[in-house]
Amino acid sequence: MEKLKEYRRKRDFKRTAEPAGDERGDSPSGSLFVIHKHAASHDHFDLRLEQDGVLKSWALPKGPSLEPGEKRLAVQVEDHPLEYADFEGVIPEKAYGGGTVMLWDRGRWSSTGKPGKDRFDIVFEGEKLNGAWTLTRMSGRRQQDKSGKNWLLIKRHDDGKHKGSTVSVDDDRSVVSGRSMAQIAEDRDNTWTKHGAAESPESPDPSLLKGARKQPLAKSAAIHPQLATLVREVPKGKDWLHEIKFDGYRIMARLERGEVRLITRNAKDWTHRFPELADTLSQLPVEHALIDGEVVALARDGTSSFRRLQEALSRGKTAGLVYQAFDLLHLEGYDLTQVALIERKQVLSQLLDASGVVGATGHGDKKGGKNSSVRYSDHIDTQGQAFFEQSCRLSLEGIVCKRGSSLYHPGRSKQWVKVKCANYEEFVVGGYTDPGGSRSGFGSLLMGAFEANGGFNYAGRVGTGFSARQLDELHATLRELDVEKSPFNGPVPDARSVHWVRPELVIEVEFTERTRDGRLRHPAFRGLREDREPEEIRMSRDQGKPASRSTESDKKTSQTPSSGTASNAELLGVRLTHADRVLYPEQGLTKLDLARYYDDIQDWILPHLRERPLSLVRCPEGRTKECFFQKHPRVAIPASVPRVEITEKEGSAEYVYVKTAADLVALVQAGALEIHPWGSRIGDIERPDNMVFDLDPAPEVKWQEILRVAGTLRERLEALGLQSFVRTTGGKGLHLVVPLEPKAGWDEVRDFAKAVAQRHAEQEPQRLTANMSKAKREGRIFIDYLRNGRGATAIASYGVRAREGAPVAVPVRWDELNAALRSDRYTIENLRRRLSSLREDPWQGFAEASRPITAEMKRSVEGKT
């Protein structure tokens, strides 16, 4: 019997373009489930389970139940085609089921038993629902009619394998677009009408554009892109468009009758390196086109990462890469280079929007956007300076500013300018040194650049930022380039044991600033630039000029900061042994890198850390080797680090504390990767001046839920008269830190924090717990108040974690909390970029907000009047 017969009978496919579908009974049954939220004649949810080539469907008037044992009515409706699983938008009002449809949840389902005709024992693994339910057909009196369409959806208790859901059916956000029902109805960007599903705008007509010239697409593969000029300030004026600056490979996409060629800025054909992107681009509804854009690798938070891009190319795993399209130079026999930029971008957006296979904006707010491998690079035309500052706070590369009225001219132009959040330049490798200590591959790379007359000048060394894989792969490449004589003009400092190479390898290096003699301060390797020719790399005009701020700090390191090869170094008067020891192998970060990090951010970290007893996580050989938690100093802690004697249950014991950045460097020398301060200072040990609530989520808890709970706990504290400040932890949760006037003792503060946590958890027992028992924490957020006891600690603000990627615990403003932030967003590599962009401390007013814990607060939290 035709499974979709009833579905087709109810629909007039002349009026609606909903898919007629086809049964796929001969194919293996899939495991997809979706839940639609549907505003039709009455609001309800639709549960759809993939089975036997169709979507078995039930209407849920009240949505799925979340309380174990609770039963909800489920009315079976006609089977739907599999294509329905991707739909979100609007069904025309006069069509069957007319109204707004949201993709409320989706994922995979499995059965804990054999699915029967009248019963399904289901485990959902979705983006919102996770856990066990039973779907069973009503019988007897409960059925109420003879159709057999009435079922019950019953929530079952979840075992250890099946974690319970914490989402509410009142959640009004799509799992695909993040939009509410009202926004979907307003956008109407996907409407099933007789004109076709998701009525796409027509492909643009280039002949209507002012400046378009009828001309065939050039046969030559050599395409010279327009380049941006580096400037220090964001240009002002209404004619400027401001785009995000991406950290990837500039690629021209040439489309000709379904064939795609991807060409680098130095005319290399890299189509074979990005086969998935070429396939997606080939689906554009166009015969001839030339698109300008950049191939990038995106991190989880949406930022582009050149390191990830290099890794993807090295491993040949390029399916996850994204092509950010930002300009259109040719379309269907018309050269568009003499068309104003703003019009070229409008046509490009229209072309991509018409395709139905790529993202129209790159922000996920139009079809395909967020998850597409081809995305339109949008822009803003106002607030350029604010846009730049926000980009830096989000650890982006910077921005590119383009005149909206400008025409396209190959080569570098001041019609396009770039403003960078960090300093980085390209150099050519002229030599390398042997590795030191336990390091493999090589120690450092000797860098240079060419003068206009062809001379090759020395520009310094870089020995950090390499992963273990890169050290070995680059070393193999360098050995093939070995030569006997130095390629540099003139002498090179400390040239003993240097291996010279032909200057053919181009690298990109990030640095904090230049010294007065033009050398780079704190250089770090970013990646190979295979798209650049060595002869293009010229000496920077800033070479040899004073740095933009005081360079007194250059004198604090006794050896060449960029050498990275010496086993010993000195920073702030502290001797670092094994300074080139790699502590974080994923980035190749060394002991010297970590010490320099604390030196650079001392003005941020010391106010939160100074003169507090400390506990440490020490990993002397690096984070992947043995690590241990240490409260009391031993021989390994340099004697220069100050100590304080603190009374304990049995006698007393020493703790270390810090006063200066030199003390922090000394802790790094001892292998300290994490610094955990007490909540009190050494001058008043027994009375804490802050209180910490640690929101510690179970693995399955979504980030959005953590943000929501942080907001509700903030409101509870404000109702008590206490102001809280939020901090990412560098892990998976958040800290709410409350400044206190140091009047209450440890027991009083701990008991008060416990009462607050318990009262808050009692409001949502299915989502929150103040019980540290692992069994009680499954599927919940643990509100950890235990960090407020005497001797208990929490990670320091701006302190690095002993975790993969070297994440940092970072104070943020409350209005910075969003889905893109994540608790491990900031790392030792990108935090300085954020700090340099801040106009004020995110915790501005922290000290002034301190309040004592009063008797009235205690009565209030205990529910007493």
From TrEMBL:
Amino acid composition bias (Polar residues), ranges on this chain: 558-568
PANTHER family: BIFUNCTIONAL NON-HOMOLOGOUS END JOINING PROTEIN LIGD
Compositionally biased spans, kind Basic residues: 1-13
Sample GO molecular function, one term: exonuclease activity
Residue segments, region Disordered: 1-31, 186-210, 522-569
Keywords: ATP-binding, DNA damage, DNA recombination, DNA repair, DNA-binding, DNA-directed DNA polymerase, Exonuclease, Hydrolase, Ligase, Manganese, Metal-binding, Multifunctional enzyme, Nuclease, Nucleotide-binding, Nucleotidyltransferase, Transferase
EC number in record: 6.5.1.1
Phylogenetic classification of the source organism: Bacteria, Pseudomonadati, Pseudomonadota, Gammaproteobacteria, Oceanospirillales
Domain of life of the source: Bacteria
Domain ATP-dependent DNA ligase family profile: 314-451
Cofactor dependence: Mn(2+)
InterPro entries tied to this protein: DNA_ligase_ATP-dep_C, DNA_ligase_ATP-dep_cent, LigD_ligase_dom, LigD_PE_domain, LigD_pol_dom, NA-bd_OB-fold, NHEJ_ligase_prk, NHEJ_LigD
Name of the protein this chain belongs to: DNA ligase (ATP)
Biased composition (Basic and acidic residues): 14-26, 527-544
Enzyme class: ligase
GO biological process assignments: DNA recombination; DNA repair
Catalyzed reactions per annotation: ATP + (deoxyribonucleotide)n-3'-hydroxyl + 5'-phospho-(deoxyribonucleotide)m = (deoxyribonucleotide)n+m + AMP + diphosphate
